[in-house]
Records
---
Amino acid sequence: MLGKWFLAEHPPIYRKLISCIIINHGEKKGSEGGTVVDKIKIQGMSCQHCVMSVTKALGTIPGVKNLKVDLVKGEAAFENTQNASAEVIHKAVEDAGYKVAE
Ligand SMILES: [Cu+2]
């Protein structure tokens, strides 16, 4: 992974880019149809109601498709067809009352 120097030397736009890369790092499907599957770790989900809340929150982001929230793994996987930024995704999860694990 990129070292600390990279974060220190580069303006925020690059940092944003980096966090997107980190989010995508977990699982990346081939670019057939240009679709990338994002997988994020979500902390704080404890029941099906939490899954519903997270599903609803992420579902409001434009371009998020085939969303699957896994309670046991504490993960959400979805196609990010409009390249929503990591910031937007984190905010949606946090607004719903949960946290994206770094
Ligand atoms: Cu719950």
---
Amino acid sequence: MSDEDEIIEQTTFVADGVEYNVGDIIPIRVTPNGTYTNEEVVRVYCQVCGAEYVGPIREAGGFLGGHECYHRWEMLLATLPEA
Ligand SMILES: [Zn+2]
């Protein structure tokens, strides 16, 4: 154990047992919500809390939208008077 491995640098995404790097194209990805084809693996991060995500663009959008929604809720709560 060392202090050096505290920062996680995730750069790969695994779909159907195949490992993809950021920038790779996933030829086909079948999910319960639909089938995705020719989708790029991207790396995104939240500008508010610094969390990062590596994966297909569809999920990256969900990550960004989820964080945006959550942090907006946090800020709204901060403006409300104490109950
Ligand atoms: Zn965030």
---
Amino acid sequence: MKKYIIAVGAVLLLAIGLVWLIMQKEPSSISGSREVAMAKDPVCGMEVSKKDSPSAVHMGKTFYFKSEACKARFNENPMKYMNN
Ligand SMILES: [Zn+2]
């Protein structure tokens, strides 16, 4: 009888672990929300967070950069990076 209880406990733990894993993955799989928060650095091509990154407005469009160095490179020659 004790073995049966241990087996049920193990299955329950496994099920809880699985649900937890699925819940951890859920936020990133919701399409759209990530796209709004993230932008592509036109200079180095890195994905950057719009909230925490330096930005520059050029011809009415806002660009976001991984670092101030990328922003400086963009400002030197915006046309070079705009169509990326
Ligand atoms: Zn960059």
---
Amino acid sequence: MTEQVTLDKVPEPRPGSGEKLLEVSGLQKYFPITGGFVFQRRVGSVRAVDGLDFHIDAGEALGMVGESGCGKSTTGRLVTRLLEPTAGRLAYAGQDITHSSRKELAPIRSEIQMIFQDPYASLNPRQTVGSIVSAPMEINGINPAGGREKRVRELLEIVGLNPEHYNRFPHEFSGGQRQRIGVARALSVNPKLIVADEPVSALDVSIQAQVVNLLQKVQRELGIAFLFIAHDLAIVRHFSQRIAVMYLGKIVEIGDRESIYDKPRHPYTHALLSAAPEADPDDDGRERIRLAGDVPSPINPPSGCRFRTRCWKAQDLCAEQEPPLVQLGGSSDGHLTACHFPEEPSVEARKEDIVLDPALAAIEDSGPAAASAEETA
Ligand SMILES: Nc1ncnc2c1ncn2[C@@H]1O[C@H](COP(=O)(O)OP(=O)(O)O)[C@@H](O)[C@H]1O
Ligand code: SF4
Ligand SMILES: [Mg+2]
């Protein structure tokens, strides 16, 4: 699997409007762990999301990256209110929706849509494309001029499918086409915010770029804000104006695209960038960092800095104090990092090859694509 993901040269991401569409503060989600045979008692909790602060402007795309298990999907499900937050605050267009009831959410339900990772599981196999794509219109009582069927046919065209596919069933389509159906479904109610949770990870590499290109087009031409979740920095790079890097329930670094890719300060961001297949082949003065082991359990996360068990820069302080997410000297406005011993704002600073895990190194040496698939799986 050596195929490169090639993305269209599309215009720069549409600048955010500066008007905050989504505001998230101190957001937490703890899943209870219960034990006992007769009486279920709470014996602990999975701290899946543990105090997030971020915002998304109207029309802006925020990319969210991190390895599997870092709490990205939970964040997406909290934002769309598929999950009830444990603590913190969520505001949409200035309205507090943290604990809004179904009824209270009804007027904005259609404005926030989700695209799921698995285009096989997310489409009902017994429904036709027409009824799948028109379902959100039906649920939200939306009757477009000319009728729902006409609108569905238009949407199929927008997402690159044949409008004649209206009466077909999901099994007649490939993964990429199914994801296009998912995009059409999300667009059917003219959303203002789309949460796309790893929308291309389940697809063939050659198809991934096509679907990312479609989403980019949608974002830029229709001015829809996105929370684009991925485990691969190469995928969100072209898509997002700002990127948030998550590790074990926390944002460890956030900033505009240039800051994150060109002047990352957090060791974890360096490691993720190092693992990402190089999107820009001329630019590789970068050292290779292979992350050892797995993300620790969110049931009992490491004290202080959660990344310390895998960080090559960790010192005693890192176990004692949690580093705050702040703007460091040398970082640009809005570029925040949570690290006691951050990297200098230059990726070329260290030249040595940091090998944290010989097993991963061996895989990597057998081919770049194999390694990136392995490390980001
Ligand atoms: N419903 C749930 N009950 C218990 N634990 C959960 C639940 N959903 C997710 N988790 C746990 O929360 C952590 C974060 O999961 P998730 O948000 O899916 O991460 P990501 O999308 O970054 O891979 C994981 O350890 C996962 O096992
Ligand atoms: S705070 Fe310490 S352990 Fe955490 S990322 Fe920074 S140097 Fe590494
Ligand atoms: Mg996930």
